[in-house]
Amino acid sequence: FSHYKEVTEEILKDSYAIVIDLLRATSTMIWAISNGANVIIPVENILEAKLFKKLNESVLLGGERGGLKIEGFDLDNSPLSYKKEVVFGKAIVMTTTNGTRALKKASFAKRIFLGSFINAKKTAEYILKEALKDDMQKIAIVCAGTEKKFTLEDILCAGYFADIFKTCLEKIEVDDLSLASYELYKKFENDPHEILKYSYHYNHLKKLGFEADLEFCLKKDFVDCVCEYKNLVVEKV
Ligand code: MLT
């Protein structure tokens, strides 16, 4: 269990990683793929994204800086913008402040999956099945955080993954941070808003008027697809 800034090869080697940026990058990417986007190409900066568009006009540019749409981009980072009629069959180049960077940082892991409440169960089940086939013993959860700090929403979602793994496995060893995330999640599992209303990024998005995104990203398991970051792109497995 790590914040993406602290992720090292040592931590991630010989593991599968689940990268979580609950509000909102990984939730948005998963929803875009679930609505039929062919592929998402996460990039670290705006210039790189614009270069993709120059080379291929049919790609959509999505993402945010400060939570808001980037000038010249097609889409912001709200999952609700990634409707079927907008994204179906499209390649989307995305850059966000923390989420896309966290994905790149996780590339020391053997496989990298995207995590969110919206598809956590399916993702956890798929990972367990693959881990068994692959004799993989370690699953690392990488929280994107916000502005170089941990954020509560990612930790709650990590706790939900710990909860699912605990239910599915007879024996599981967790580090202290995973244990803390699990206990915190269990305390607020029925109403995460109850604790998140005191947290930084949740309030930032609320102030920007993204209440509907908060509701959306905190709903559990209504999406069936599992998303993997592989060969520099996010695709459905
Ligand atoms: C990020 O990558 O930092 C976030 O997804 C920001 C956001 O909520 O748009």
TrEMBL record:
Keywords: Hydrolase, Magnesium. InterPro entries: ComB-like (IPR005238), ComB-like_sf (IPR036702). GO terms for molecular function: 2-phosphosulfolactate phosphatase activity; magnesium ion binding; sulfopyruvate decarboxylase activity. Its EC number is 3.1.3.71. It catalyses: (2R)-O-phospho-3-sulfolactate + H2O = (2R)-3-sulfolactate + phosphate. It is an enzyme of class 3 (hydrolase). It comes from the Bacteria. The keyword Magnesium applies. Its cofactor is Mg(2+). Coiled coil: none annotated. Belongs to the ComB family. HAMAP family: ComB (MF_00490). PANTHER family: 2-PHOSPHOSULFOLACTATE PHOSPHATASE-RELATED. This is Probable 2-phosphosulfolactate phosphatase. It comes from Caldicellulosiruptor kronotskyensis (strain DSM 18902 / VKM B-2412 / 2002). The lineage of its organism: Bacteria, Bacillati, Bacillota, Bacillota incertae sedis, Caldicellulosiruptorales. The gene is comB.
